[in-house]
Amino acid sequence: MIKAGIIGATGYAGAELVRILTTHPKAEIAAISSVSFEGKAISEIYPAFFGLNDMVCENAEGVVEKSDVVFAALPHGLSQELGAECIIQGKVFVDLGADFRLESEEEYAEWYGGKFLDKGLHEQAVYGLPELFRDEIKGKKLIANPGCYTTCSPLAIAPAVKGGFVEAKGIICDCKSGVTGAGRKPTQGNHFPELNEGFHAYKVASHRHTPEIEQTLSRLSGEKMTVTFVPHLLPVNRGILATVYADIKEGVSFDQIRQAYEEFYKDEYFVRLLPSGAAADIHNVRCSNFCDISLHFDKRANKLIACGAIDNMIKGAAGQAVQNMNIVFGLDEKTGLEFIPPAF
Amino acid sequence: MIKAGIIGATGYAGAELVRILTTHPKAEIAAISSVSFEGKAISEIYPAFFGLNDMVCENAEGVVEKSDVVFAALPHGLSQELGAECIIQGKVFVDLGADFRLESEEEYAEWYGGKFLDKGLHEQAVYGLPELFRDEIKGKKLIANPGCYTTCSPLAIAPAVKGGFVEAKGIICDCKSGVTGAGRKPTQGNHFPELNEGFHAYKVASHRHTPEIEQTLSRLSGEKMTVTFVPHLLPVNRGILATVYADIKEGVSFDQIRQAYEEFYKDEYFVRLLPSGAAADIHNVRCSNFCDISLHFDKRANKLIACGAIDNMIKGAAGQAVQNMNIVFGLDEKTGLEFIPPAF
Amino acid sequence: MIKAGIIGATGYAGAELVRILTTHPKAEIAAISSVSFEGKAISEIYPAFFGLNDMVCENAEGVVEKSDVVFAALPHGLSQELGAECIIQGKVFVDLGADFRLESEEEYAEWYGGKFLDKGLHEQAVYGLPELFRDEIKGKKLIANPGCYTTCSPLAIAPAVKGGFVEAKGIICDCKSGVTGAGRKPTQGNHFPELNEGFHAYKVASHRHTPEIEQTLSRLSGEKMTVTFVPHLLPVNRGILATVYADIKEGVSFDQIRQAYEEFYKDEYFVRLLPSGAAADIHNVRCSNFCDISLHFDKRANKLIACGAIDNMIKGAAGQAVQNMNIVFGLDEKTGLEFIPPAF
Amino acid sequence: MIKAGIIGATGYAGAELVRILTTHPKAEIAAISSVSFEGKAISEIYPAFFGLNDMVCENAEGVVEKSDVVFAALPHGLSQELGAECIIQGKVFVDLGADFRLESEEEYAEWYGGKFLDKGLHEQAVYGLPELFRDEIKGKKLIANPGCYTTCSPLAIAPAVKGGFVEAKGIICDCKSGVTGAGRKPTQGNHFPELNEGFHAYKVASHRHTPEIEQTLSRLSGEKMTVTFVPHLLPVNRGILATVYADIKEGVSFDQIRQAYEEFYKDEYFVRLLPSGAAADIHNVRCSNFCDISLHFDKRANKLIACGAIDNMIKGAAGQAVQNMNIVFGLDEKTGLEFIPPAF
């Protein structure tokens, strides 16, 4: 059994890791930590786990020591030192934060306000979006697990960008996220009566996931891409829908694009390319590691419209982190992740 | 008192008309009709009205006869004959359906599959979006009340289009609507357990409101415009948010555009241009006739992003219809419509 | 115009007072205050009010001075001194908190942990539940506005208790409240993802509204009554449903009880006794000052089951406070409160 | 592998059976049927299953033939003949409908309007509530799977009734159910805009689950019991909370009762008796087979208040049916049912 440790287990991504790893057939949770709740059982924080996982939060050092793989679900900026320590101790480190996601230190500084403490470490890091970069993940020690918007948006448009079917310029990602994306901490904006029956955009064209989406798409296209990214907040618990708009290049047909998607994702268990006529719905991927994609064609404006739906806490965080662990440890990628989404 | 009749009073738009007109200080409901519920009280259908309006549904002929102004909230295709009859009888006719909205019979045929029964009648019809075409509405007898998406999207982008600040090509309206937009009839897609905690696009780039949005924007710009329109279904009762994307022309600054909006809407009671930094939220316009607009700038891609929020059943249907009635009858436009949206 | 001041205007009850009084035809808001947001506009806190009421919060002293009637929507314990000051200055004082609700200082000490600072003041206070104690309210200066559960539960069972149709012993109030009842302050328990799709009881048989319900029912029956009161938290914004159970006395028929209710409430505009077969629903009283009541009979156990539904923020707080103001100032009780609940 | 057949696979209980059995390690779905959707894939009805279970609905006869165990999720009244046929063919029959639940033909006639077609068959039937009647289930061929309210309410009060700690008379079950309990068919009452932000009781003291709850409690107490049962409809997808009220007998202490519960449920994996101070919440049992129970004491009225929470579609339907299958086939009762409820 792989011994897994979770740093920051009481946040939402951490809690979802606890839930998934508790039933993983090839891994067991060695220890969990939380700065805010040290000494408390995870099931005191999340009574859903009562009697099923009553592990007590300890400190980060203890977790690292007991684990083969360390998952860090920390606020941005706290993972660089922890990651360094894990690598020194020979552990696999899967970071659910943003510290190792951007290759460019300049962009990291611009969007997150920090710098790379150890450039060598950043060079070892691999961006853990398996459907696009699986080969690089195998056997690596330091995995930068993508963010939620940055999983969903690129997967929705990747085959079109990689195949050169759409213009590199002018891509728009209009995204809508459930509330868990904003974390466990109660705020006025997420207070039930002020969010329920509401809907609005936030951080318009200024969200930190922008450079991460651009980095992924640029790697696929081979040229520097700029995207317009607008996130919105949905009054639901889980899920992200990305509606991605791109201009189809002259001479390219929508059918060609659809075929390219089918080819691109034909062996991907966790990507479900929906039949023509269907529309991706966050309802259908809840509590699962799937990314559903539907393709649409605006023939009047010659635009490709691709919708991608994920559970932001699973494929957009904890599930993908476990998928990365599976890859690193040579397991079948689906191990412990074959959740069928509930029908209702 | 203006005598108002409501044809199709038991649908959602009709019921909202009943509610608004029941407290209107200068109008009174003369009669209401419903094909499905003839002989039943409106408060049997909507127990919220119990004791406050218990009028009984009669047939359409009786309603026309008793009324100075007839509101028709009917499925598309049923208003042309009714409208003709009202005009013959000298009534004002406010149609909440689509029959008189499109100026081009060709487009009507393409999107709705019907034809203009009486071209002269269509020429008398005026498109009732007061903030854009108020002068044409005054004193008219036949008002085509805009649809919900087609109120919200054009209002959000109108000053930019009219001022020539953005490219005519490539405008995208990514819209999200509450469930009442789909009407009162229960369907599998709107069944609570299948919609709640879900979110998806529908009728992507093929919704009938597309030519109506284009018609309005084309009138403002003076050139034929094509827009990409993608509606989505939100798990909330009321509200539409339109997130509209447009490319800013070279040499135009975002500040210029903001000033143009301020000028354009400075005397419009029902349009609230939000302060910089705010984002329009459907939560804040519920149960009111307001359209909240927020402006955002993607400086990296030089795009204008305008968000417009309305209550789809009020500013997007019944409220605007009453606003049109007020204009036609020379009342203060706000009469009976000064609802303050609830804070929660 | 009556000059009204609101102390604690930025809490939920205060904000609802602002909304209602802004459109009241016989009153105007003279000033508002907030400890937390002094110097800020109410519309900065609640953007729904933007452009409609942008009054700036000042301090409590200023509000009292400018007002004929002072509404206090404060945490429990802060109203006694303020009330005393208002009475000295000759103002009408309507307290939405609990400080003046209980007649028994002993019970106040037991449930709230405080004492009566000025017993004479408490003797002047009248309990402002107009449908039960209207005659006492007229012309009074100090009104203790009932709580939300304590409006809904007594109204649902009052005619049965007053008429002596049910046993005084064993009454159960199983109540379910929307989230606004817990106030504006975000907490873990009210955080959207943890409340949405959830439902649970809280403060079981230990909620502070218990003695207040008992006081009202005891006044009606003339004997000391004890009730079992269990509140639950509903994942909706507004509304309380009270399901009240009582044992029907031997020899009393359900029809007798129904007739007694009809007689009891026949002149009450704000109480709607629903037809047989209907069930009171919080959906149908939202944003209104109505209390809907439905009566049900368990003939197998010979129990009366009465359901009462209110909007907890209106009939359960701000609306009732305005109703009390109307009574005190000799206005028609409905003035400014004739909101028709939306049908959806 | 046990070959399982599902009759009525496209209803909500059927779909949940499909989902659970698709990942059951000791059973496989042999065939599924649906009258309405014969020839269609289950994943066309429930796109959440797309690619994971695309089995096509056939007719009932084919399903019986191919199966070792037949689950029937049919409208009431359709299971008696099917059950007879299954028994003749030597299959195990688990009926999720009500046809075999009531032992008394008289009560069946009163509440369901039908009669027992084959009394011998009814005598073979066993009521499948494992935590209360496990010993009778083992090795049986015909299992009447309890309804949702009738699982939750009895489990919440069973130890108190069985132990004789509470009065047999006067027990009240105030229950609140999510919308899936009303099934897949869209109706006006379950239409999103009319249910969302609403809450009401229905079938007050007249719901068909009443005699079933009474039968279970009467078996536990040894005397004929009558309960007051009032169901309400919650605007959530899944879950039932039963708040059960009972009068504590003289001389019995609340601590005694709590100890009796601990003893009663100490070996029950699927019942979680919550710590003192906690309150059972449907949020914490979603998508799991658990029943959470919290105990509360109204010392002023000397009442026991027990709250029980289940997922109505799992412990209240499909999960319990699989639990019964596991028992009948001698498997570990938890097999295929160890779902950890999501934390949010």
| Rg of chain A (C-alpha, Å) | 19 Å
Q: Which structural category do the helix and sheet elements of chain A fall into?
A: alpha/beta
- Number of DSSP helical runs of chain A: 12
Strand order of the largest sheet of chain A: 3-2-1-4-5-7-6
Shape of chain A: globular
- The proportion of residues in beta strands of chain A is 15-25%
Number of beta strands of chain A: 14
Give the integer mean of the pLDDT values of chain A: 97
**CATH architecture assignment of the largest domain in chain A:** 2-Layer Sandwich
Helix and strand succession of chain A? EHEHEHEHEHHEHEHEHEHEEHEEEH
CATH topology of the largest domain in chain A: Dihydrodipicolinate Reductase, domain 2
Query: How much helix, percentage-wise, in residues of chain A?
Result: 25-40%
Query: What is the number of domains of chain A?
Result: 2
**Mind telling me the CATH superfamily name of the largest domain in chain A?**
Dihydrodipicolinate Reductase, domain 2
Which class of the largest domain in chain A in CATH terms? Answer: Alpha Beta
Low-pLDDT regions of chain A: none
